[in-house]
Specification:
0% strand; mainly alpha; 434 Repressor (Amino-terminal Domain); single chain
Length: 89
């Protein structure tokens, strides 16, 4: 995956976080309080300028009261080939 492709996927992820947050009527500061992820980071994440760790994504999902999968728009759901782990799944 190229750097440009990564940036596009990060932007899509950020848009999805914003969509879920706004659908719940939640501000960035409220999500900050609920998730312990700074509102400035959330702001930058929502415009695709931050690359969150898995721990941060888990905290965001918890703060939003949603499933982890709810934060990933359909275009980000990439399936691994059956042999990716060296065995059939």
């Amino acid at each position: 995956m190229t750097n440009a492709q990564v940036r596009v996927r990060l932007a899509d992820f950020g848009k999805q976080v914003r969509y879920v947050r706004q659908s719940l009527g939640m501000t960035q500061r409220e999500l900050d309080r609920r998730s312990h992820v700074g509102y400035r980071f959330i702001s930058e994440l929502e415009i695709g300028k931050e690359n969150p760790s898995l721990a941060t994504v888990l905290r965001l999902a918890d703060g939003l009261g949603c499933e982890l999968s709810d934060l990933f728009p359909p275009q980000l759901n990439v399936r691994m080939p059956n042999t990716a782990l060296g065995r059939e799944l």
